[in-house]
Amino acid sequence: MGRATRSTYKVSFRRRREGKTDYKKRLALLKFGDRLVARKTANRIIAQVVSFDAKGDKIISMATSSDLVKAGFPFAKSLPAAYLTGYKVAKDALKKGVKIAVLDMGRRTPVKASFAFAVLKGAIDAGLEVPHDASVFDNDRFTGKHIAEYAKLLKESSPEEYKKRFAQYLKMGVAPEELPKLVDSFKSKL
User: Fold this and answer.
1) What is the spatial distance between Cα 178 and Cα 46, in angstroms, rounded to a whole number?
2) Cα 111 off chain centre by
3) Which of the chain's termini has less CB crowding within 10 Å, N or C?
4) How far apart are CA 8 and CA 98, in angstroms?
5) What angle do CA 125, 131, 135 make, to 5 degrees?
């Protein structure tokens, strides 16, 4: 009987073990070309247009919802902020010559009207070509119309509850009923 000269156990890549990277999915995305990367952290939304390089991915353009807050948009972690972040990153990428990209959501499960699709809708509205199915969009949620309608309803029915629910908006001097107009005005600035 022969002796084993080396282990037959193979350790997978660290990022695979940690559940951070699906290499099969990544390879498929890399074959397409440039990627529109949408990520959400605890405090902000990050959108990037990235191209592959053998030495490491190169970021062509990047925008975060924190940039919007610095410019005066009231909230960094909302669907309207995700929409505007996608719009901003696509405008910058178009200036740098990128015309088409594919959405990279990472390991997140696709959910209709989620932040990643808000980033995607913003990028498409800016002029970036991204293959997609329009059924995943909810324009009312991406522009904040649903918040404005709820605020109007609550203001009429229960002014105390309105002040409580929208205290952050009111503290920042933003009327929640005017959120869709605010999104449109920021979109024209970007």
Assistant:
1) 25
2) 13
3) N
4) 45
5) 75
